[in-house]
């Protein structure tokens, strides 16, 4: 049995981290959480504490933290203070392994971690891939997490919808791939729209902005509803911003589109090549 | 071994069928094929010969045809005359079964049929679902077909990309679901963009336009490239139009995005819930 779904205020926070400046980056994320006392869920970008463009294992080692490290402590304190849930990205150290992870934090403390399943490009040099798609029961509904490139593998959102997820929080670091923006949107927004629409879930993407070591990040953080409609954002492509979507998560439980159509029951796995 | 992929001119033809007027609807599709003597592939809408909004089995029976019926003959003649391939939708009768099908026709004749896998709403009253995802080897590359609602089940495009498909022809009858058009696009265009981009295939959608028995169709026919960028269209939402995309189908063979990223090899089926 899933917990009930309710109204939820879902905020996506777009930041401009400074590479390697963990203390100040973390302070910025804590300030952003503290600015959202009315939110039920605050989503922060991928690798929000560290920046993204690593050039050596030593650089990763210098900023990676365990799931009970100082970032977890800081976000847990802010989540308790504001009575919000927080999903945010950080480089995780676990013994010999390193992950591109997101912490899931409730007002009661750290609830768990999601480790990016579909790593992108140089991340494969620095990080081990995750292999779990956990769900988190919150007071407002069931929460799932993806990170950036995960959104390009639509099987993941299908997997989450089938597991009862109502809202997918997506810490991300979108890059211009491709450079062109059809209809004005970076491709991640299109992927969020398509995934939300075809699975009838909310998708809340918190992207970073700014340019780091020559790599430009796309901003355009956005909250998309189960129809596939952006209800908050996309935010501007540059600068630090935040926006909140008023999400009735009960809508994500309505998988019937008509009396004859159901986005999950209508799937035909015996026809698909899933291997 | 797949056949080589080459440059291809892919045309999407947007028509406004009149319900039940098979002869004149068919004439319009033949005229459209004949107007595209420079095209390698002409895509026509879903149920282009019959119209869409059936209200009884008798109405379907009155317009359904076998795969070697008069529509097949007419399209085969036009395909031979213009030296093009044609993919177009028609209601198929096969013994006791009825399908929402697309014919695949080459200059040499009928190559096969695709029967819509993911039927929508009242179609489930009139049609049996298809259960095959065939591929067609053409002189310009490997062709696959989807029909309308199929695009909302992204596992199908993954299935086709894994089978070597370079271009997905999509006869469609998009309806305003949802009514809102994010960024100005009906949701089918967003789905085409997302599916093309995440599988690196061309997606060519030929939609109908017009209002039939109170149901408005969306137009916006479009050809999307493997980056997810519309290279022809979206066409206007009303009226009969056609547009041609210059498609280098070799691009659909390049599944590597970087030296470390490959849209097919990077999939993690053991992590997804595919059942």
Please tag this protein with its features:
6-stranded mixed beta sheet; 275 residues; alpha/beta; homodimer; Nitrilase/N-carbamoyl-D-aminoacid amidohydrolase; 21% helix; 16 strands
What does this entry look like structurally?
The structure is a homodimer of 275-residue chains. By secondary structure, chain A is of the alpha/beta class. Chain A has a single domain, classed as Nitrilase/N-carbamoyl-D-aminoacid amidohydrolase. Chain A has helices at residues 22-34, 57-63, 70-82, 123-126, 155-162, 187-199; strands at 7-14, 41-43, 85-94, 97-106, 109-115, 136-138, 141-145, 167-172, 202-207, 211-212, 215-216, 222-224, 230-232, 241-248, 256-258, 261-262. In chain A, the strands form four sheets. Chain A has a six-stranded mixed beta sheet. Chain A has a six-stranded mixed beta sheet with strand order 6-7-8-9-12-13, with helices on one face. A two-stranded antiparallel sheet of chain A has the order 10-11. In chain A, helix 1 packs parallel to helix 3. The radius of gyration of chain A is 17 Å and the shape is globular. Chains A and B meet through helix 5 and helix 6 of A and helix 5 and helix 6 of B.
